[in-house]
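Q: what sequence does this backbone want?
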């Protein structure tokens, strides 16, 4: 048995912080959370006392690309061999964990490397966060992400693609409802997989008890995806009141990934980002921020996702997304929940991760500074005093 102590604690859900908190754990799970006054620490328990540090759940980033390293021009690594991508993914997983992200949802990886990495981490060969893996994405012929994704046209090909991914071990199915920024020759505003194809993906995944997520930037594609019952909208650049109302009705979540366009605009052409990517980012960026703020105001569940691996969007810098969401109008507490309990609920893992409560994995961060006053403290590596994954100090 172990006991973790600190100065204050955010449990991932409640507005009220716990002062002088004690978290008890047995094996890799939490058994009790309270204060020094309420929790009996057994005499033989190992005590991890983090002094005046702030305790909170390990964070979640529910949109990452582990095989991409954030280089300016994504075309450069298009022909990387499978082994090279696997080594990169392992390194990126370690950097992510060290930054305080104990769970990630991988949203597309060539050769299903994320699924294999997840298995290697579980087997103890590599250190890394818990991974909910999609494997390859499903896209139309020549569509967004077709390099490395599965091209499928028509509901039957989409069903076959979903079944192929499930056989490979996918935890979640990622589809492409619209074009996007980083694939040359497709448009972010254009619908891609059609309603019938999206319905086929949603149904086939649900039959196997799995959730679905879609890359969706343009309005028509987003609306079709929500209608089809896809569980989360990734990016969601062109939302309107009608689509937001439909998302609320269907319980569809939003993973905005504000970091992706932000890093592209901050660095630009001079840094080597291709012209087509900068142009398309300029087309979506302003509407993206407006859509995010509208969805937040309306009460759409929002989870933290960075799209890490896109240009200058580095694995390990994932916590910048909290700051970007706060700058775009989200409250600090909502941003902290987006990085913990809300993200966990969006991926169906709320009983395991994203909050500090009995029964959950003991994934705990000790942080210098108070993130409930300023989320920027989470983005500075020197402030992450300890990362505890399943009760083990990393
Ligand atoms: Zn992505």
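A:
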């Amino acid at each position: 048995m172990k006991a973790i102590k600190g100065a204050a604690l955010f449990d991932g859900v409640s507005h009220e912080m716990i002062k002088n908190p004690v978290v008890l754990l047995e094996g890799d799970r939490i058994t009790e959370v309270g204060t020094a006054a309420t929790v009996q620490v057994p005499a033989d328990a190992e005590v991890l006392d983090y002094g005046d540090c702030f305790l909170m759940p390990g964070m979640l980033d529910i949109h990452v690309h582990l095989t991409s390293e954030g280089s300016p021009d994504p075309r450069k690594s298009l022909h990387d061999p499978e082994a090279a991508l696997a080594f990169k993914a392992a390194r990126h997983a370690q950097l992510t964990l060290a930054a305080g992200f104990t769970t990630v949802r991988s949203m597309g990886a060539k050769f299903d490397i994320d699924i294999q990495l997840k298995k290697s981490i579980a087997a103890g060969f590599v250190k890394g966060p818990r991974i909910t893996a999609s494997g390859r994405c499903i896209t139309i012929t020549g569509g967004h992400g077709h390099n490395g994704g599965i091209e499928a046209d028509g509901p039957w090909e989409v069903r076959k693609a979903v079944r192929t991914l499930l056989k490979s071990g996918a935890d979640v199915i990622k589809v492409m409802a619209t074009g996007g920024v980083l694939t040359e020759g497709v448009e972010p505003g254009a619908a891609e997989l059609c309603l019938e194809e999206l319905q086929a993906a949603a149904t086939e995944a649900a039959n196997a008890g799995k959730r679905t997520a879609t890359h969706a930037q343009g309005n028509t594609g987003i609306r079709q995806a929500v209608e089809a019952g896809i569980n989360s909208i990734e990016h969601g650049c062109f939302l309107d009141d009608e689509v937001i109302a439909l998302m609320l009705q269907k319980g569809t979540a939003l993973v905005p990934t504000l970091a992706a366009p932000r890093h592209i605009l901050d660095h630009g052409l001079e840094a080597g980002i291709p012209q087509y990517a900068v142009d398309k980012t300029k087309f979506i960026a302003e509407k993206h921020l407006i859509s995010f703020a509208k969805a937040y105001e309306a009460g759409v569940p929002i989870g933290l996702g960075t799209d890490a691996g896109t240009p200058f969007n580095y694995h390990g810098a994932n916590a910048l997304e909290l700051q970007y969401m706060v700058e775009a109008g989200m409250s600090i507490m909502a941003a902290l929940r987006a990085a913990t309990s809300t993200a966990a609920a969006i991926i169906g893992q709320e009983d395991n991760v994203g909050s500090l409560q009995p029964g959950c994995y003991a994934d705990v961060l000790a942080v210098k500074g108070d993130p409930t006053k300023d989320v920027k403290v989470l983005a500075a590596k020197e402030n992450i005093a300890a990362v505890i994954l399943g009760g083990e100090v990393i």
